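#struct-help
A.M.: can someone run this one for me? Single chain, 296 residues.
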Amino acid sequence: MVLDLSTIHRPITDLFAWPRHAGDWNALRLTDDQVSFYRQHGYVAGIRMLEPHQIDSLRQELADLVNPAHAGRPLFYEYNSNESSDPATVLFHALGAWRVTPALHDVLWNPKFLQPASQLLNAPVRFWHDQIFFKPAHHGGVVAWHQDYSYWTRTQPMAHLSCWIGLDDSTVDNGCVHYVPGSHRWNLLPITGLANDMDSIQTVLSDEQRREFTPVPVELKAGEASFHHPLMVHGSYENKTDRARRAVVINVFADGVRSASDAALLEGVPPIEAGEKMGGQFFPLLFDPETPHQQK
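D.P.: on it. Structure tokens below:
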């Protein structure tokens, strides 16, 4: 029986040191230029998030979790050994690893993530859900163009943020994330699918949006991260190299976001009545910038 780590709302290892002084927190802040870039373009990238020993711990846990027979599999909200419908283009995609293994639990409380997240949200940071993406060598599948919030309208208002953290160097050849700068100012688009077809989004774009559709590849070193807006159109192509491309994504929202559905917000999670504030066991408050020294 695997312990459900969602019952623990604090780090359980010493993998991510918690700053004790204001100066230490200030050193983790995004610069004014970085925040301005995010506001203008809808993303900001190249932020050092993990040290080598932290990357190693996360990789080791991921190597175990991709085994469908892992004892913790029932704790995942979603578990797709292959999100793609084509067995020749594998895309491992799972939600809920924070409930299963200690490093993937504790990465939520990484101060290098929390301080920038609170700046970009301009609010205390509350957890939504995590994701693992794993593109194996040579045949890793695509992540089709999409907006995250199109899958999240069951939580309102839209005050969300995503952080994509690479566990490997991500390049154009192995399927790095591409962003469409400025698309965070577009309307909410219909869902056209998360895997298989990179062109399907074109069917829901206006003529102006098609003209503005100029994706930018975001190549990152292992341990670097990017943040993006919930309406940012993004996707990634297949892995053509002889090495894996692995990533962890942390999705959060500003404290105060409410449920907009009486149904379960994540698979297996008790419903939160529509109109009620998000919180409880599965949606913990991770960080309050007003009291940064208090470790949760």
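A.M.: thanks! The mean pLDDT is 94.
D.P.: also worth noting: Residues 42-255 form a domain with the Jelly Rolls fold (CATH 2.60.120.620).
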